[in-house]
Amino acid sequence: ILCLDNSMDTYKAVDCGLLSSGCFVGIIFFILGLGTLLPWNFFMTASMYFNNRLNTSEWSNGTVTTRKEYYFDNWMTLLSQLPLLLFTLLNSFLYGWISEKMRIAGSLVFILFFFILTAVLVKISMEEDRFFSVTMATIWFINSFGAVLQGSLFGLVGLLPQKYSAVFMSGQGLAGTFAAFAMIFAIASEADSESAALGYFITPCVGTLITLFSYMLLPKLEFARFYLHSKSKSYELQTSSRLLPTVTLSVFPAITVDVKTVYGGKWERYFIPVFCFLFFNMMDFTGRTVTVFFKWPSKDSRLFPLLVVCRVIFVPLLMMCNVQERHYMPVLFSNDFIFATIMVFFSVSSGYFVCLSMTYAPQLVEPKDAETAGALMTFFLALGLSLGAALSFPLRFLV
Fold it and tell me: Do 192 and 331 sit in the same domain of this protein?
């Protein structure tokens, strides 16, 4: 069997054993892709649990008083994106001075530790301010290590044939759906809220452990050794599978998670996990997948940036859904299915245009400048993400 060695532009003979281990390498990189985005998605999808612990009510002089608003979803979004911006800037320093194994295995170990801590805190009673501070610190550190992990794995998978990068990104694309289903199963278990939350957070602990073992298994496969040791290693922090347009993070999940159903009963418990998180992740993944077969408008079309800008319309549309509590804006779309329809177009366009943008950017410059363009695109998208997360605060206040 012949295989092209890109570093020498010559053909080398590869035995059947080497080729067969390539299937296992693909499975491993799918698991690694899934594992890189588990932290972000599990914390985001668990917003109802965190808000219930933080925004509780208490009795005072015979009346119910509500404690202060923590704006958990806004802070969670902001503190998840700032590490991405920070480690984009620290890219060259980290990858030049810290070994690949230390970056990947070390990041997974720390992510596992913080997930275990989050699971343990489910069983520990804690004053709200302290719980909020500990949770925010956990989100900061877990996403910092997640940013290092993701950038390192993108560099690693870049040494293999291109199809393995697609497999890796497919794993990343399904991480949000995986987290949404985990939340739905936790609710469907009919366990008390504490036990359901504990089971929910144990799931990413197991997932991170499997991811760590998968990475440790990689060097033992002959196919992986053939590629990983035959080429010079060059790392660049790439985040295209995680990136959402700024517009998206200004309202998701900070505003969308507060939309209430007009129906009661058990559906009330499933409404946000299904219509907010499951719909968003499945449709976002669909939008990204469509760009493989269909790219419109073209990279030179003036219509393309116009359509991207037009996504701003989703901000007021989602703000005028049945978001509670609200103070200023009216509710124009109280129906559940109108909200679901808006979420479908919102998420499909998010995945489609971010994937198209990352594809087109390097093609708009000379080939020698393509790598620089990709790096700049990554930085400004990370900056946009952080600004979008910050914008969620005044937008939520305006509702």
Answer: no
In total, the chain counts a number of residues equal to 399
How far apart are the C-alpha atoms of 157 and 273, rounded to whole Å? 32
pLDDT digits (tens, 9 = 90+) for 232-258: 444 444 554 455 668 788 898 889 999
Q: Same domain for 307 and 210?
A: no
In this structure, what token pair is assigned to residue 30?
Answer: 């799918």
In a domain, 364, yes or no: yes
End-to-end CA distance of the chain: 63
Distance in angstroms (rounded) separating the CA atoms of residues 390 and 388: 5
Give the Cβ contact number of residue 79 at 10 Å. 22
Residue with tokens 């410059």: 365
Q: Take residue 371 and report the two structure tokens written for it.
A: 């790598």
Range of the domain at 378: 243-399
Asked whether residue 199 is domain-assigned, the answer is yes
Same domain, 214 and 343: no
Tell me the per-residue pLDDT of 350-375, one tens digit each, with 9 for 90 and over: 888 887 877 776 677 776 666 566 66
Q: Which amino acid is at 343?
A: M
Helix (H) or strand (E) holding 230: none
* pTM to 2 decimal places: 0.80
In this structure, the number of other CB atoms found within 10 A of the CB of residue 126 comes to 13
